[in-house]
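Quick one:
INPUT:
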């Protein structure tokens, strides 16, 4: 990569994993796994040194130079490049938007097609109709027919029809090419209605312009592309609703555009992936040139593109310069081209290791190793100081004594409790850590959620918060944008919690960091503690673990974007409802699972309660991808320190079995609550948690009588759990 000093690159995308349209029919036909046909934008952006914001653009404020988003604050820009694609035009035909399945946006088609598969397998659907006679529609219907006939309980009962408004299918292709596909579709038993224009779509079929009706259980829509409606409100030059660009792919001084969403002013070009892909390198060059003041280059579309269209089998048909050829060799050529292109975006080099520096002769080996790894230290709760170091440092302190302090430094609890003399007790906590995600808005939500969690773990209600923010050095407008985003995200969470942001402090530093000092209130007899576990109690965990290893892998561009999105979903989920549910079921002890990992926090509870505990490894919920990341060796920088808790495990032989046991030591950011409660109410409590949105909540073990050993934790197989 060739970064430009002073330039920050941000990718705003609705879906972090982008399907490659050229391989979509192969996925549908079952020839490729879904992951083989998707570009992971998270890995790609990490490799490029940029930022990934997952949201959908819904407008542009060109005066303020801001992209308006569906779910986050506007994103500021100095230079903007648009490539939001297009989608089949379902608005011009009544009922199409409600009853047809559009192929684009492709990122949603996979899920929609899974629904079709399920209905066909169950025998509820047997008539499939596709509207659109272009190459995409023809290839897709052939692939759909191939897949469904393999998986339907009665393949002979299936019916497939293609409807095209043009005089023939594939109208822009040579006559020999069209004839070849006519023959293939006839041989496969696929009916073709062309020319035939659909004028109405209803549940169960379509109506044609000549008044004829065609019955259909599933209606797929691949008609001509339609642009996003909001482009009309941007003030950009448009042609038929598409953004008009000049020869350099520029729509305005500060806006470039490419792909299916453009109208190329120098001359019409097909809205085909072949042309969009070829425009990529030129677009990248011109963006760089605009940033550094160089002359832009014109885009020269190829006059004749090679077209290879699959047939739903191993064969394909290709054409170029009027010549049409077909066979399995053409299918192999298409697969080779597609896989080679995908590899340029998926087989990325490993990220560079931190550079070496002069080593002082005064530094011992441990210090050299620790300092050399500093460049890759984790953010989030993985940035905590390890528990042993913390205990030793705090053990040297003698705080001032006050009778009003009911829970303070001498207790392992999640927050301090102060008696103000009224009917309620005051609860105090503070949290602060470096950012571990690209989007400051999302980071603000995670940091606020994490800080509030200690209040909820005490059974308290948050009331006020003070913010502590460290902002990276930079131009004033960038610092302001970063501060605005991070505080908007945080305040969204605080407001939902009924917690008033009453002030704070900012400072400049090398990295973005955020924390909160939160105050809450709790009834005198109603607060939770880590003490109180009783033999026979069920142990319930409300969220899956694995954020530490996923964040560590993401730092090095090795975590899949969908894994990270799932992890972020859990990290931004509040523990407030879980605390209420535990209060309702009269939990005996509660804590939140954060930096010291599941095992570390459970050990704190067992030692404070003078009990032992059995954990069932297979029952512990784990985030998607966490097993893959920990098995690949991606661990948080706090993980080695957390491994000291392994001395608390009685049967270490099981603890050494990777990768599940390793996740016991994984530091969590904005993790779930861990509670012990009477076993007789465990099932009802779990049901209530899942109904409240904690879909991965699980019963993970039991509390046992103390054995008076230094190792209170025993790991069990499911069959051993009683």
């Amino acid at each position: 990569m060739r970064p430009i000093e002073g330039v920050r690159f941000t990718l705003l995308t609705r879906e972090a994993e982008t399907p490659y349209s050229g391989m979509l029919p192969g996925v549908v036909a079952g020839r490729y796994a879904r992951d083989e046909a998707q570009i992971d934008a998270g890995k790609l952006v990490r490799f490029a040194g940029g930022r990934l914001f997952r949201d959908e653009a819904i407008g542009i404020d060109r005066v303020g130079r801001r992209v308006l988003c569906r779910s986050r604050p506007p994103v500021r820009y100095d230079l903007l490049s648009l490539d939001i694609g297009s989608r089949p035009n379902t608005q011009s035909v009544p009922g199409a938007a409600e009853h047809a399945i559009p192929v684009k946006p492709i990122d949603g088609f996979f899920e929609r097609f899974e629904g079709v598969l399920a209905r066909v397998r169950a025998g509820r659907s047997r008539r499939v109709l596709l509207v659109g006679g272009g190459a995409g529609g023809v290839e897709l219907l052939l692939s759909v027919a191939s897949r469904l006939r393999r998986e339907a309980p009665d393949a002979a009962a299936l019916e497939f029809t293609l409807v095209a408004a043009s005089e023939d299918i594939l109208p822009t292709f040579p006559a020999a090419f069209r004839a070849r596909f006519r023959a293939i579709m006839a041989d496969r038993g696929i009916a073709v209605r062309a020319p035939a224009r659909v004028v109405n779509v209803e549940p169960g079929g379509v109506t044609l312009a000549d008044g004829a009706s065609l019955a259909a259980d599933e209606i797929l829509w691949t008609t001509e592309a339609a642009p996003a409606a909001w482009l009309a409100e941007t003030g950009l030059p448009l042609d038929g609703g598409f953004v008009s660009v000049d020869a350099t792919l520029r729509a305005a001084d500060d806006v470039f555009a490419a792909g299916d969403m453009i109208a190329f002013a120098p001359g019409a070009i097909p809205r085909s992936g072949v042309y969009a892909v070829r425009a990529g390198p030129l677009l990248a060059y011109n963006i760089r040139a605009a940033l550094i003041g160089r002359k832009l280059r014109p885009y020269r579309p190829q006059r004749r593109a090679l077209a290879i269209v699959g047939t739903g089998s191993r064969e394909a048909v290709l054409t170029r310069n009027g010549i049409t050829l077909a066979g399995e060799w053409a299918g192999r050529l298409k697969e080779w081209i597609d896989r080679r292109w995908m590899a340029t975006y998926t087989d990325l080099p490993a990220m560079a290791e931190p550079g070496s520096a002069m080593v002082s002769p005064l530094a011992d080996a441990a210090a050299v190793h620790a300092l050399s790894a500093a460049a890759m230290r984790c953010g989030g709760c993985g940035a905590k100081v390890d528990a042993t170091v913390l205990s030793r440092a705090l053990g040297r302190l003698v705080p001032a004594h006050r009778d009003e302090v009911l829970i303070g430094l001498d207790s392992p609890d999640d927050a301090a409790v102060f008696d103000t003399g009224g009917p309620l007790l005051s609860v105090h906590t503070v949290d602060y850590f470096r950012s571990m995600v690209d989007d400051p808005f999302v980071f603000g939500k995670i940091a606020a959620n994490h800080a509030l969690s200690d209040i909820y773990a005490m059974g308290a209600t948050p009331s006020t918060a003070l913010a502590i923010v460290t902002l990276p050095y930079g131009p004033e407008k960038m610092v302001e944008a970063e501060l605005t985003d991070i505080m908007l995200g945080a305040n969204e969470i605080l407001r939902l919690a009924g917690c008033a942001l009453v002030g704070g402090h900012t400072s400049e530093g090398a990295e973005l960091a955020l924390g909160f000092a939160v105050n809450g209130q709790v009834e005198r007899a109603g607060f939770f503690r880590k003490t109180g576990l009783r033999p026979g109690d069920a142990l319930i965990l409300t969220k899956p673990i694995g954020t530490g290893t996923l964040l560590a892998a993401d730092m090095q561009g090795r975590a899949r974007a969908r894994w990270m999105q799932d992890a972020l979903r859990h990290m931004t989920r509040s523990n407030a409802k879980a605390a209420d549910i535990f209060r309702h079921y009269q939990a005996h002890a509660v804590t939140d699972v954060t930096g010291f990992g599941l095992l570390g926090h459970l050990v704190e509870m067992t030692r404070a309660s003078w009990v032992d505990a059995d954990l069932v490894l297979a029952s512990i919920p784990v985030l998607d991808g966490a097993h893959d990341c920990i098995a690949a060796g991606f661990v948080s920088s706090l993980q080695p320190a957390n491994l000291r808790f392994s001395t608390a495990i009685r049967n270490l032989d099981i603890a050494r079995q990777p990768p599940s046991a390793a996740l016991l030591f994984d530091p969590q950011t904005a993790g779930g609550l861990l509670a012990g409660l009477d076993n007789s109410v465990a099932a009802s409590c779990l049901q209530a948690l899942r109904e409240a949105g904690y879909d991965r909540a699980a019963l993970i073990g039991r509390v046992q009588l103390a054995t008076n050993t230094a190792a209170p934790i025993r790991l069990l197989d499911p069959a051993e759990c009683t």
